[in-house]
Amino acid sequence: AQSLPSILITYHSESGKTQAMAEAVAEGVSQVQGVSYILKPTSEVQQQEILNTSAIILGSPVYNANMAPQIQEFINSWPFEGRPLKDKIGAVFVTGGGFSIGEEAVMFSMIRAMMIHGMLIVGGDKVEAAFGASAITGEGEFDGKEVQEIFLEKARGLGRRIGEIVGR
Ligand SMILES: Cc1cc2nc3c(=O)[nH]c(=O)nc-3n(C[C@H](O)[C@H](O)[C@H](O)COP(=O)(O)O)c2cc1C
What we know:
By secondary structure, this protein is an alpha/beta fold. The protein has one domain: Flavodoxin domain (Rossmann fold, 3-Layer(aba) Sandwich), CATH 3.40.50.360. Helices cover 36% and strands 22% of the residues. The protein has five helices and seven strands. It has helices at residues 17-30, 47-52, 69-76, 103-116, 149-167, and strands at residues 6-11, 36-41, 55-63, 66-67, 89-96, 120-121, 133-136. Strands 1, 2, 3, 4, 5, 6 and 7 form a seven-stranded mixed beta sheet that branches. Helix 1 crosses helix 5 (149-167). It is globular and about 45 Å long. The model has no long low-confidence stretch (mean pLDDT 97). Bound molecules: flavin mononucleotide. Residues 13-19, 61-65, 95-98, 101-102, 137-138 line the site of flavin mononucleotide (FMN). Keywords: Signal. This is Flavodoxin.
């Protein structure tokens, strides 16, 4: 419904891993009563959706220890004049191929950019998702598989927490 506070869950994904995390974030939000969400890739987001939302939960794959260029471009497109995003909630999720080869760096680069816009940053519900939700998708036992439940649960927890905060 239009009148409910809304959360924008948006992401870039080439091979579906970051999208799977985004869907789990949405599942978490949907566990909370009285909030709505929009789930879509950054390429489909309208400026009005950015202005109307109470929170942005932004997801990127790790590319050479940086966010995907599509995510950087998306952030660069946010309205800045008058700082209309100030005091909106910001949260992040990432997927990376391997352990400790860029995930946290990418989380913090997205968080830094959100802070330029004056957003209030919120992490996940467990210490294992302190900076947001992340998934390893290409190393060791995680290689060649769907995004594993341990990571999807971090994403659900992030969505649930943002939902609860926005609902207050
Ligand atoms: C060009 C490129 C660079 C990448 N660089 C890294 C990297 O530096 N560190 C890392 O952990 N994973 C890296 N990866 C792996 C992706 O982050 C990983 O496969 C991710 O889950 C893909 O997400 P997607 O399925 O949503 O596209 C890279 C992948 C590509 C295509």
